[in-house]
Amino acid sequence: MEKLEHPLWIVQLVNALLGPLVRRAGEAMGHHFTGHDVIPPYIVMVMLIVVFVTALCLFVRTRLSVENPGRLQIILEDGIGAVRGLLDEWIGPKGHDFLPLVATLGLFILLGNYMGLIPGLMSPTSSINVTLACAITTWVYYHYQGIRAQGLVGYVKHFWAPPGAPFMLGFLMFPIEIISHTSRLLSLSLRLFGNIFGEELVILVLFSIVPFLVPLPMMFLGLITGLLQAFIFMLLTIIYLQGAVAVEHHQDEHGHDAPHGRQAPAAA
Amino acid sequence: MSKRSAVTFAFMLVAGFASPLYAQGAGGDSALNVEIAKWSIITAGFALGIGAGLAALGQGRAVAAAAEGIARNPGAAGDIRGVLLLGLVLIESLAIYVFVISLILFFLQPFSPTAG
Lengths: 268, 116
Fold this sequence. Notes:
The structure holds two protein chains of two kinds. Chain A is mainly alpha-helical. Helices cover 69% and strands 0% of the residues of chain A.
C-alpha cells in the first residue's frame, strides 16, 4: 500500500511547524517514533476540521440576530432544527439533552467525508483510527446515558431478560446481548471506514488509469455516500440512545406505555 | 444423483483442491505458506463477488417493497423513505464487512511467507 501514501503539503507544513515539539513531548513519555511523519495525516485533517468549525461558529456568533438573520445563520439553524426533529421523533423530549454530541458527530463525519474530495486534503474518516474513535465515543456515551437514566442495576437488568419473561431466559440472553453490543462498536466503525476508504481507493485507481473526467462519476457518488454515511452514523447513535434510555414502565391509567417515539429495528 | 450425494461429492472435490496441504507437515514450511497466501488472495476475490451479489439481492427486495408501499399509500412516502434508507444502509454494511476482509487479504497479505 505504499503507492497510496503520497505526501500532502498541509501535512508537511504542520509536521515542519509542530513536529519537533511533538517529537520531544512523545520521547519524553517514552514513545519511539517510527517512520517519516511525527504527526499522522489524519490527525492533521481532524485538527483542520476542529479549527474550521470553531472559526465558523465564532464568526456566526458575531452576526447573530433575531429579526434579520443572515444566510449562514439560517442554514445552521435549519441543521440544528433537523437534528432536534430526529431526536424528538425517536427519543421524545428527553432527547434534547443529547443534541450536542449527536449533532457534533454528524457534522464532524460529514465534513470529514467531504474533505477527501478536495485536492490537497484527505478524509480523516478514511482511516480506521478516526472511525473507531467516533464509534467508541458513541458506544461509551450511550452506555453512560443508559446507566445515568436507569441506574447501574436497572441498566444491567435490561440485558438480562425482557420484562415478563422467565428469569432463566436471562442466562441465554445475556451473552447474546453482550455480543450484540460489542458488534455495534465494530459495525459502526467498519461501516464508515469501509465506505469512505473504499470510495477513496476507487477514485485513486481511476486516477491512475484515466485521470481526465473518468473519476468524476465516482466523486459524485462520493458526495452522496458521504452524506448518507454521516446521516446513518448519527441516526444509529440516536437509535442506540433510545434503546439505552427508554424506560419501560407498565401501562399507566391512560392505557398507553412508554417508550415514546418510533420503535427501533433490531439494529446490529 | 440425489441431492445429498451431490453435496458430498462437491465437498470432496473442493477438499481435494487443497491436497498439497495434506502432503506437508503441520507448521510453517514456506511452501505451505505460499499455498495459503495464494488461496487467500483467490478467496478474497470470490468472497467479494458473493458478498456484493447477495447484498444487492437483499437491497433489491427492500427497494421493491418500499416502492410498492409508496404506490399503495403515497401519503406515507416520507416514513417509507426513512425506513428504506435505514434498511439499505444496514444491508450495505454487511457487504462492507466482506469488502474490508477482502482488502486485508489482498493488500496486507497476512499469510505470505515474507509477511506482506
